[in-house]
Design a protein that fits this description.
single chain; 467 residues; alpha+beta; Methyltransferase, Cobalt-precorrin-4 Transmethylase, Domain 2; Heat Shock Protein 90; six-stranded mixed β-sheet; 16 helices
Amino acid sequence: MRKIVARECQNIEYKSTWHDEYLKWICGFANAQGAVMYFGVNNDHEVIGLDDVDRLMEDIPNKIVTTMGIVVDVNLHQLDGLDYIEVYIEPSNIPINYRGKYYYRSGSTMQELRGPALQQFVLKKMGRSWDDIVHESAKIDDLDPLAIEYFLKKGYENGRITNEERNQPIEVLLQNLDLINEDGKLKNAALLLFAKRPQSYFPSVRFQIGRFGANEADLMFQDIIEGNIIQMADRVVDMLKSKYLIMPITFKGMNRIEKLEVPEEALREILYNAIIHKDYTGAHIQMHVWNDYVEVWNEGELPIGFTQETLLEQHSSRPRNRNIANAFFKAGFIDAWGRGYKKIREGFEGAGLPMPKVENFCGGVRVIFQRKNVNIAKLNPSDTQDVALNVAEELTERQQTIVSLIKKGVADNVALNVSVNTKYLSEKLNVNRKTIQRDIAFLQERQLIQWVGSDKTGHWIVIEPHA
């Protein structure tokens, strides 16, 4: 059998026969990038022929028009005396449904769009995003002037807002950012970015951080960051520095240097992505801080067809919330050309850490990145118990007591914001503080304990392998 020469197209499908089930495929291709489908051709591109082609040449276009309301090119061809049909589907600029359901072709799969995914798809086909929708009851008085001033200051410092723009009335600023419609009504994006209490409009405008020990049930402490999203990343980073991540102290000459254990610029890029691309009709953003890694999750999956590999390659910028993304660009927080994950990779590689893992998870995007404070929890599970026992054998009775007191002190006192420090341990054990400091240094060197938070308000915690 001879093979056909297919028409040039991004998506080509070969089917040995026709079934009405393929109407869903035509719907999915019309909603995506279009396609050419050949019927009477096998997967090796060889023509095997069709029966009753006269009926099919009439049925196929009629069924497509009556069920989907679109017109496609249906052509009859012949090779070596065998008939086959070519159906050319152009991408549609409006949403297409088949019997009330919306399908979308992504890669090699046909997906039925539902819920938030369908909402986003319909808005995109209309040239809009969710943050572009007008909020009928909101007023300019609901916006926080301090949040707007923060935005203008950052944009001016980063060279993306001029001094003239900085001194314009709020209404003009909102118009220039496309955050207000022609009737003077605020869009969702304006409230998320600048409202005094955005959570009163959208309950999921929250960033929850939790510190976990051995497993998900072992929640040691947590915090919730609320307020406008333009300042949210700053608030999250400040909280992480004060309580959740460590800042090892080094000296350069007489200068004291405190540098976050993970690359801060790359961390901010991860936070910006979570905030900008979040589906604000869903759950709040969540961060799990473990002994050796951190997870950040936001509602709303990657764009259809995107993977971690796509993000690391050159790709177009496809923000879920375009007005929010534009405001973050004007503030100087992000680039406009999809370079975010390239910057994340460069930041983590420069710090000697592996590239964070990015994946669709539970209806959203999860980013997992390694912490730099290596500890025994990083070892293979089969090795962890033996290593823990060997380290424990090195401890004196007093050092073992210190570990127990730190563990008990954290459990008893975190809720009261009481630090477990050397003074507390010295009094409990009735030894001088220098002795405690030597024991602490020994335990820290063996990565059995870790200091969390700032010098003044922090405390020690025990590092334990998690399941």
